[in-house]
Amino acid sequence: MTTAAGAAASPPADEARADDAPTDGTPTVDATSTPAGAAASTLAELDDVLLGGPRTLTLRDLAGRIDAPLDFVRLYWQTLGLPHPEADDVVFTEQDADAVGRVSRMIRERGFALRTASSLTRALGHTADRLALWQVEALVEDMATRYGLDDTSARLLVLDRLADLAPLLEAQLVHAWRRQLAAIAGRLAADYGEQRTSGADRDGLPLARAVGFADMVSFTRRTAGLGSTDLSEFVQRFEYAARNVVTNAGGRVVKTIGDAVLFVADDVVTGAQVALGLARELGGELDVELEQVAGGSPRARGA
Predict the structure, then answer these.
(1) What does each C-alpha distance from 50 to 95, 97, 137, 237 come to in angstroms?
(2) Rounded Cα distance, 89 and 102, in Å
């Protein structure tokens, strides 16, 4: 594979020649030289792996393929959260045509409303955007730490290796999505399985849930003097610990925002166990870990 950073980026140790491989296995990336031809070659290979081939189609071509209005195809692309091309820009692949065609058939054959199809597509686009960015940044951090690279060199090395890593990331994504969908199906069965015969109030709230929120006291003051690396480590430790506590107690994380976590549980008892676990964790072992980074002693507060 041609590296976007130029020929100076060494291949993995098992692929390098014995006479020119670095003694410590560290790849070399020359961030000062990025030939346009090498970058184009890397992106072309990524298109083959990620998009199934070259970009040969326009929005008009996609509309013609599925016999749908141009506005429908444009709406799909906008809802997916990707840049909005002009109608005659050649930026799409055969896989793009297949994807738009599946949505069109879902509406025609299964009776989904356009609003529903757009909502499903928007959920995919929003989630995929955040997931892809998260994964790339994690890979950049790994390359920088493992090989002692600066940020630019680490990003170029990640770009060079994405084609090899993408199938693994895709397989893990599909597996995680299937497991999450199965978990939701299980909760639906537990919540509604007996309602048809139990005489439950059909006009009441559909689900009983406990919702909780916890954050750190004086987060701004404690992190004011941290550099970007230490701040990132601080937040990552908090998020990792908070997610572990919530899931181990039987709850689910709705979202994390820096120093705060919003969670939900299926009943009040589980919600209380999550809240107590967060207070215990943030005031115990995590307290010591974060103090090493920020020089402070975080305490949890919640509602």
Answers:
(1) 9, 14, 18, 32
(2) 22
